[in-house]
Structure formats: structure tokens, C-alpha cells
Amino acid sequence: MGVNLVANYGEAVAMILFVIGFMNLLLQKNLIKKIIGLNIMDSAVYLFLAEKGYISSRTVPIVVNGIQDVEAYINPIPSGLVLTGIVVSVSVSALMLSLTIRLYRRYHTLDLDEISMRLRKEGL
Amino acid sequence: MSKLRPQKEYEKTGAFRFFRWLSGSKDPYVGEVEMKPQEETIIPESTILERMNEKRMMRDKIYDAENNKKLRLFHKIYIASAILFSFVLAGLLLYTVSCLPPVGNSANPANNEVPERYIESGLQETGAVNIVTGMILDYRAFDTFGESNVLFIATVTVLILLHNKKKSAKEEENDRIYEPKNDAILQACAKVLVPVIIMFGIYIILNGHLSPGGGFSGGAIIGAGLILYLNAFGFKKTERMFTEKTYKAICFAALTFYCVAKSYSFYTGANHLDSHIPLGKAGHILSSGLILPLNICVGLVVACTMYTFYVMFRKGDF
Amino acid sequence: MDFIQNFPFFSIILSMFSGIISSILPGKAAKRLNTAVIFVAGLLSLILLIYLIGTGSSYTYMMGHFPAPWGNEIRAGILEAGMALFFCIIMLLSLFGGRKKLNEEVEEGKHNLYYILMDLMLSSLLALIYTNDLFTAYVFVEINTIAACGLIMIRQNGRTIEAAVRYMIMSLLGSGMLLMGICMLYDLTGHLLMSNISEQVALLAASGEYRIPLLVTIALMSVGLAIKSALFPFHAWLPDAYGYSTVSSAAILSSLVSKGYIFLLIKIIYRVIGFEIFDNSRIIDVLFVFGLMGMIFGSLSAIKENDIRRMIAYSSVAQIGYIYMGIGMGTAAGMAASVFHILSHAATKSLLFIAAIGLTDVSGGSRKFVDLTGAAYRNKWAGVAFTVGSLSMVGVPLFSGFISKLLFAQAAVQNNGKMLPALIVLGISTILNAIYFMKTVIRIYTPANGTGSCVTFRSMKLYAVTLVCFIVLNIILGVSSQPVVDLIEQGLAMFS
Questions:
Q1: Residue C334 falls within a domain, yes or no?
Q2: With an 8 Å Cβ cutoff, are B119 and A3 in contact?
């Protein structure tokens, strides 16, 4: 075990959330719960990424009072990447939810296994 | 010493009403609001039994679930291996995290010459006081362009799935049957809040390069304001202001402007030409070259997208 | 800076712009715009390829006013320009071949939305080919995923929507792991541009610092991309998605979409991590083993199938196993064989899907083998095309499949440790391929009593011309493959 587990506790929490989301995605039967698991997984990755930018005792990267010293601000790159990531997460959530609405209207169930069974029955 | 009043007179006073409300014996809204009470959807016992039978019959016919030991074994193995795999993954990831460089350390590999240039020369090269906005809309603008296209393509797929132009009149009436039509409280609040929300959203978009904010957050706020307006005043009133044509026009104009402006910027940059876009004075609203118009475009697109998602999920048509 | 060097940027921006314009155009205009854009992008790639063969080196192109670690960058070389040209050709031919079915199966008023999806799919494939920045690659991978989901479910019946849901779940798992890998790599090296990352990774590997996180990062990125391109244990979504969607979607999905992710993986191996480091981590052996298993299980599942399109979809699983076997060999010759197989498979699989739809149309729309008996006599063009495709898949000389199997065998012989398993499985899978493809060809050429209608050439001119173009492409790749292989090797040499 490496040395930085306690120092990186935020990232450790992010990893646990990632695995929780992953397990939800694989093991839940209800489609809406799977989508929630997906959201948890994505949020965990963004938490992990946002932790990267932090440098202790420095402030937000907005130039105040003309101070442009690199010692005064945190790393701005991870914040920009998380902005992009959040929009991607919203888009795929909206797409998955509209797929769920269409499936529910047709089969009146949110259980993916039952939908597969009904499809197999239709094919017989 | 006070005189005892007759019951009928007492029932007209405010004190009686207050204590009645406090004790909860009479609901002040039932019968007083123009709202049709929801009928409890009673699913008859027979349809539930029918569905259960159908499901059981399907399982027996297709999978032979009773005797199919293989299926049950496979199911158990799947769940067991999924849980085992997740625990192994969690352990592995935690071990990796413990070996990564510590958070908050200024000597991390990530704090090298790249953020140094962004912080030290960001204001001069992009004109934006907010270094993060300058980074995503000027240094790494191609990523943000891709991201606007992710939003656009997600809207296109939701439109494919849920947009239903032929709606019967009966379905239109059903849409608002369980909601308070012209609810006085909601409308009074919306009349005050919606202008404030939209103004706040516009403020955040316009100040994207001067303070925290930008096109994405401001657009989401304006979208929320539009949704509140729709909920309070209904589709008929909102249609006067925002129809499908409006949506298409705004999205097309904003994305085209974004595409053309950014292509000009990329082309001049790659060919080492000067782009002749003035950077203005730092700290003013009209500064930082292309960043302000791009923020406005992105904000418009995000607001329309949020509103479209809501409308598609609720009614299927604008 | 020559004007020709702007061409990759022009092709990406042009396809995105036409996607945006198509949102207000009606269906027919969007279709014509889409065809024009794919044609122009192909033409630009062809000119770029000829220019790059002339100069003999690759170049980087700054996207914006700021150079490499601070701004975005794209990079063009022989391999990239060649792949872009090939993808444009396949996309154009697949759209032509499936045009008639598209008009029948897509809902009225949503045709222009389908062409928007096609434009953005083209732009994301081109951006994945040319990009030199990891985070841009991630954003365009997401565009690719959403566009592919749209292509699967455009038919909007129950099967396709369920297939789209399964596809999205697996694909988003892969994207999540890929993003996690990119974030960790950023933490270890501090850069997002591929060339800068590789310098830092070389330093890290030499000093031995952060050894475990580097290994986990490589594993996460490889597994994420393997899930998205349907490597063996993760292929559950593939048969439904390819088997039930409309035919031009199926052709484009099987030929181009998975290959875009494999190309990104090759790019990461060469340009981000470096070939030696990737070889030293044992990840490459895992990819090799899964590739071998995919080859066998895909073919076994295809033999059991009763539906022609699902059979062709399962054969895709086997072919992707071939490509991963080539990558897993860990030599430059294996990589060149994989890239050639990407081209050959793209040309053949689209041909098979488009020919299959012709065969099922004249059998009353049924896809079961019982009803397809004698279909080749009713639709002669589709029958010949399906036969050519099958022979190429099995590996008969004169067609492109034979050359790719030959290249795989040659690459396997050069590598001592993995030679025996690779050659054995190559042989077994050729026999299995022959079983199910030859069974189908014999069945469609068995004369049957007249069920279903015959079609003449005049009623399906575009379809017949498309089939002829595909057959010609296949034969060109099969007969004169040496220039193509030389170009690929030259491109791979300048790739890193």
C-alpha cells in the first residue's frame, strides 16, 4: 500500500463512489436505477478530476488586483475539463431517459430482463 | 370576564379559523382551488393476476425456469462474479490512489509549465480575467466546440425518440388535467421570479470572462426560468413566445456563428496569420475578443436545449 | 505552410457545419448535402494522401494561436490520411446501398435528423483519426457513442430500442473507464497532448517511479476501449444492435464505428505510452488471449444462428478478435496486419450486410434460412455479392480476406512465443468461418419452388451499382495489396 492514502482521501472517496455506481449499473434490474448508477459513476470521475487541481493555500484562478503570480492560484486545467465533462454527462443521461420512456410506453415495465423476455416471445 | 359567544358567531372569527387550521381538522384547499382531485388509479385485482400469470408462463415456456438449473446457476454465478469483480476493482483502485501524488502538493507533475503560462500570460493573451474561461474558450477551444456538438446531437436523438407532431385533441386536454390550472400562488410567484431568474442568467453569461460563470451555467439558469414560466402559465401562453421555429432558429444561428467564428480563429492561428480581433481593455465587459460572443451563443444553445428536454419529456411537442 | 496542410481541419469543420445546417433543411436537401460532404471529405483526404506520400513525413497543425502543450493540435500522416479516405468511401457506399430501405423505415419528417447523425458521425471519426490530444479524443468518442446509439434506434421498434439501451449501458461503462484512465495519466504526467505525455511516460518508466499507477492507467484505457469496440467478453450488445437496425446503419456501425475506437487504441499504444512500455506491461498478452477467444466463440455462435443478419453480426465479433490478436502480437508486422484487416473487414462486412438485405427482400422480408432458399436466383446481384463477401471472409485467394490471413500468419511466425496458439486458432477459425458462410451460400443457390418475387436491374440501379463498387474494392484490395501494405508500414513508421 502506498503512502498517500490519507492525503488523497478525496480521491479514495471518488473511487469508492465509482465502484458503487459501477455495481449499480451491473446489478440493478430497474432501468431508472441503472441510469442513476451511471450518473453516480460519472460524478465520481469528475470529483476525482476536480481534486487534481487543488494546491493548498492558493485561491480561485480569477485575476484580482492584477496579481498574476503562479504562486497565487490553483491549477485551472482540471476545472475546465470538468466543465466539459458535466455537459457530456447531462447529454447522455437525457438520451438514456428518453430511451427508457419509449420502452416503458411500449412494454409497461422498467425491468430490462422482462423486456428481453417479451421480445423473445414476440420473435417466437 | 368575557361573555360566552354563540357557536355560530364564534365560527366567523379569525381565532376559530386559526385554531381549526392548527389542529388540521379541515383542509383549507379542498374545494377552494380550481383543481380536479386525482382519482386513485385502482388497478383491478384481475389484471395484476393476469400479468403475473403471463410472466410466469413466459418464463416457463421460454426459459423453462422451474427445471432449468443451468439458468439459475448462471444467474447466481453472474451475481457472485459481478460482486467479486467490483470488490477487486475497488481494492485495485484504492491501492492506485494511494500511490498517486498527494493532493494539494505544489510539486505535483500536473503543476508544470502549462498552468504557469495560463496564469501568468492568460490575461494578456486572451483578455479574460477568469483564467478558466480563457482556457476553455481560447487555448483549448476545440474541446468546447466538440462539447457543444455533444449537446446538439443529444437533442437530436431525444427529438427522434420523443417528438410526436400528430397529437389528438384528447391527449392535449389530458396533459394538464391533474395540475392546478392558473394556480394563483404559482402565478404570482412566477411573475416576480421569472424576470429575476432570466436577468440573473443573462448577468452570468455576460460576465463569464470577468467572474465565475460563463455560457453553460448561465444557459442552464435561463432554461430553468423558462421551465418555471411554462409550469405557471401553461403551454398556450408560452407558445406565443417559444415555438419550434424559434428553437430551430436560435440553435441554428448560435451554432453557425460559433462554428464560423472558431473556424476563422483556428485557420488564422494555424497559418500563423494575425486574426485582427481586438482584445480590449481587461476588466471591461466588451473585452477579450471572441469570448463574449461565444459565451452568448453557448448560453442560448444550452437554454434552448434544457427547455426542449423538458418539453419533450412532458408533452412530446413544442 | 502549404494550403494542402489545412485539409484535415477543413474536412472536420465541414462535416460539423453541414450537421448544423441540416437541422433546418428538409429531408431530401439534407440527404444531398450529406452525400456532397462525404464526397468532398474523401476528395480532400485523397489529395492530402498524395501530398504526404510526396513529402514523406507527417506534420502537426495548431488549432488556434498557441502551440503544443498550451493549445489543441491535430496531426496528419500517411496512415491517418489513408484511413480517412477509406472511411469516407465506405460511408458513401453504405449510404447508397441502404438508401431505399432508409426511405421505408425511417419516420416521415425525421429524415433530416438521421442525416445530422451521419454528418456528426463522420466528423467524430475524422477527429478521432487526426487528433493529437487525449481530451479531445474523449469528447469525440462521446459524440461517436451518441451518434451510434441514434443510428441503432432510428427504426424505433421495440427490438432496436432495447438494443440501443444495452449498447449505451456497455458503451458508457467503457467511456467512464477511459476518462478515469485519462485523468490518472494527467495526474502522473501533467500533460494532455500525446507527444508531451509520451516523453513524460518514458521518463517515468525509466525512473521506476509510479510504476503501479502507470500500469493501472494503461489497463483502464485499454479495457475501456476494448469494451467499446466489442472485444470478446464484452460483445453482448453486438448481435442485437447490428442485426435489427436499418441496413446502412448496420453497415456503417460494423465497419467504421468499432474501427474508430481500435484506431484510437493503436494511437494510444504508439503515441502516448510507447510500444516498448506497452509490451512490457502484460496487458498486451491479455488482449491477445481475448482476441483468440473472440475468434472462436464468435464463429461458434454464428454457426448456431438461424437468422442471416445475426449470423453476420456474430461473424463481426470473430473478425474483431482477429484484429486484437494482431495488436496483441506485439510486433510491427502484427500491427500492420491488424490495420490491413481493418480495411479489408470494413470493405467486406458492409458488402455482406447490403447483399443480405437484398436477399431478404425477395424472400418476403423474412430473415430465416428456411425462407432464403434459392434467393440468389431471385436477386442475382445480391447473390453474387454475398458469395464474393463470403469467399473473402473465408480467405479464398483473389479476395482481400486471403491477404489479411496471410499477413497474420506471417506476423505470427516472426514472434516465437505466440506463434503456435495464433496459427492453431487461425486455422480453426478459418474452418469455422467456412462452415457457416459456405452453408449460407449453398442454401441461397439451391433452387426452390417459387416463393417471393424476382427483381430486375432496372428497379434497383443504385443498389446494383453499389454492390459492383464494393466487389471491385474487395478485388483491388485482394489482388494489388502490396502497395497498400507498403503504405501502411510507412505510415506506422512515422506514426510515433
A1: yes
A2: no
